[in-house]
Each structure stands twice: as C-alpha cells, then as structure tokens.
Amino acid sequence: MSTVACFDYPAIGGVDISLLGTIDRNYRVPFEILVSSLLLTKAPSTAIEWHVITDEAGSDWDAWQAKMQARHGGQRVRFILDRLPELASDVLPLRGRARPITYARIFAPERLATVASRLLYLDADMIVLRPIEELWKTDLGSSPCACCQDIAIPTVSSAMAIGNHGKLKLNPQSPYFNAGVMLMDTLRWKERAVARKALDYLASNFQTVNLFDQEALNAVLGSDWRPVSYRWNLIASVAGRSFLDTSSLRQDDYEASLQCPGIVHYAGILKPWLNPFLKGRWFELYRAALRQALPEHRFDSSMKRLLQATYDAGIRRWLYPLERTLWQARRGF
Questions:
Q1: Is the pTM of this model over 0.70?
Q2: Which value, in Å, is the radius of gyration of the alpha carbons in the chain?
Q3: Separation CA 237–CA 127 (nearest Å)
Q4: Residue 274: is its pLDDT beyond 80?
Q5: CA 126, CA 33: separation in Å to the nearest integer?
Q6: CATH number of 2-330
Q7: Contact of 123 with 292, CB cutoff 8 Å
Q8: Where are the domains of the chain?
C-alpha cells in the first residue's frame, strides 16, 4: 500500500496483543482485509491472539478458521473461533441492519472462556495503516476502555446520539464515542458491570434507542472512557468532507489524523468491498488493500452501487442535511 508512504512508523518492539472481532458470513470478506492490513503493519515479533465471535452455526466456520490460520499463521497470529448463540435474545433491539451479533462486543469480556486482561475490539469494516502496537499501548488510567470520539456524532446531544441525555444528567457537550474501536480493560469492564448495565439500558429504551449497543455503552459509561486520537477511528464516509461540522472536534488532532490515519473505518452504507465505483482517497486505499489481500474478489457492479457512488461523489455535499434527517428518522441504517 504505497499510498501511505507519509507515515513515519516508530520503532516498536514485539508485544502480545489480544484482538476481538464479531462477524457473520456477510462480513468475512472485510474481516480478511482487516486482518491482512493489520498484519502488514505490525512488528514482526508481535504475537496476535484474535478472538472471532459468531452466532451462526455450520461447519463452514471451522473450515474458514482453518483457512485463515493456514494463510496467516506464519505471521505470529492465532485465530480462536468463539460462538455465542445465546445472543439471539428478544431483549435486543433488532431493526435495519442490526443483528444479534451486533451486541457481542458488549458481552465478550465476560463470556469468552479465555480472555486477556486487555482486549482490543475492531469492527470488520476497517483497514489498519499504522502499527497496532501504538494503540495497544494506550494508557487507560482507571477507565474501563479507550475509544475515539465519533467525528460524525461528536457529542451526546448530537442527532443520533443519546436522545435522553438530559434525563441521564449527561453534559450535552460531552464527547460521544464510536464503538468500532474499543481498547477494553476486561477486569474493569466486568467489575463495573458494563454489559449488564448496557443490557438494562437497551431493555428500558427498546423502542427509541438509536445506534443500538453504541448508544447503550455511551449512556452507561458517560465520561468514564479514555479518548484516543481520531487517527484510530477515522470514518471514511465523512472524514475530510466539506459538509462535516467539525466544531466539536479537537482541530489539531483531526487535521493530523486526516494526513496520517491509523485506522480508516468504512461505517455506514458505503462499503468499498461491495461497491467498485466509490471515489476518493479512502476508497482507493481500501481497494489497494483489497487487491493485495483478496485479488480474486468480485464486486457488486449493479446500478444500485453506481447510484450510491454517484450520489456520494456529486450531490451528497448539498443533500447531507436531508440525509442526516432521514438517518435520524430511521434511527440508523
């Protein structure tokens, strides 16, 4: 990925890192691209233990795990497949694209049979462009997790954040984090009963919750999380775009992150492993990573994808307020 030549990687010694992914069959392809990008940038001596949670049955998962181990095992990574079928619960809000597996990251620190004291969760729809050891070594202080303020939903009072933030007595200007990247202290996570509190919040706000477990985690943690640089969760669909309101962001950090991101997150409906027509730096970065990891991959070249890309490249800058209004009305995707 020569397009990231601006990076001046620090000299980082090898460490042991525990990662977490939660996927179904639809997200195997992006997960494989995430894995390849992370392994390309980590220190050769760093050892990775990657827990992969699914709530789906089928022997094809065992075959997939074996394939991943055969392909990447020589790079000091071990994949552990975990199934949590009990996630299929009627107390979890499910609409739009939400599935029971959406909530697995909440429960992982408690329900995994073996888990380290520190666990780094990464959404599958990402690429890693800097050594992950930098993020792994983040000082958590006394907080149960470290996350990045969401550049699209920056405060708890933003549209699509926490509608009842006043009732919860949260400062409306408090930062709201994106849960796509979470460095968790698993002991503090369990001690503070984060999973139970989040589940209680979801049950109490079943009909009105916006972004599912992300809202629940923000609601129950409040300000009890450690912020990290935007570079570790830079949202591709809005990063650097003129229509994004950045007034609630840390400007110096945001500008530096645009120049040299560590993780680019393809949240939302613009998925670059599906759509070959998407334009712009972030999507070109993804296609470069995809060609390297899965050269045999085939895109969806349907008219739907072409219209999505045309909208994003052209009129989206003018219709973004309407897009946000519709997004809010649907309470997500």
A1: yes
A2: 19
A3: 14
A4: yes
A5: 8
A6: 3.90.550.10
A7: no
A8: 2-330
